[in-house]
Amino acid sequence: LGALWVCVVLNPHCKLEEKSCWLRQLRKWGEMDVCPLEDGNYGNELPNITNALTQSSSHSQDAGDSKPPVYQHVPVATGSQDSGESYLSLALEVALMGMGQQRVMPEGLYAQDKVCRNEEQIIARLQDLELDPVLVQTLRKQCILLLEGGPFSGLGEVIHRESVPMHTFAKYLFSALLPHDADLAYKLALRAMRLPVLETTAPSGDVTHPHHLVSVVPSRYPRWFTLGHLESQQCELASTMLTAAKGDMLRLRTVLEAIQKNIHSSSLIFKLAQDAFKIATPADSNSDTTLLNVALELGLQVGGTGAPGMGALGLL
Q1: CB-based contact 293:280 (threshold 8 Å)
Q2: Rounded distance between C-alpha atoms, residue 27 and residue 21, angstroms
Q3: How many angstroms separate the CA atoms of 304 and 316, rounded?
Q4: What GO cellular component is one of the record's annotations (predicted)?
């Protein structure tokens, strides 16, 4: 939390008067015995991630908008000037920032199940949003920041071995981004395919680098009670990408390589082979050769006769 406030106060785009205002507010909170979020009587309650979208609706109603507030862009004014943002776009930004934070999986069945349920609830609210150009721009900007976010981001280049997977979140981001920025959508979804908690071998490349130390020492598997659910979500993300990449040889090859590298369950690989076959052979049109080859390659991998990067797909 302290690091977050440092980033807020040191924002180069923040004006001097805004910084002074934040400093006064932080000093006021620092003098309190109870965190403002724990006691609403202080009148400084901040919207948390799970109710950010609901809060945006409340702000819209407070602004005197007689129409239904959801999707309505009520401007956020800073002093006497309009900041160019709306409460809805800020709510989306807060939700995406919170969902994308890297965090270690908690211990215990209840806590792990709660992580999954909370994520699904937030995504359900996000899916209710109609992504107009303003929200698309917010979505795109946050996705780029998550990919470049370093150790604070669950979609950064390096993550902790026991970091909460981003498969469900990435599936939403992929579907939302695909019509607007396909390259960014695939880059993000492919990054999210990893599941390092199941990795038991050292990665290729310079294993002496500090970032690889966690992966080099396999140790024992942690007690992830929701692992089966998480693997199924990983499979769903892969299936979503396969469906979207139908007919695109380069995209399909990249997705196939990600599946071969990151999915460790033979039953899920077989399910993906079945999915690819069904999508490639619709009843009302001709078969898609590219996707049929992916189905065959995945089937060969399950049967133990195929190797990553070889087989039917490699012959095209």
Answers
A1: no
A2: 10
A3: 21
A4: Cul2-RING ubiquitin ligase complex
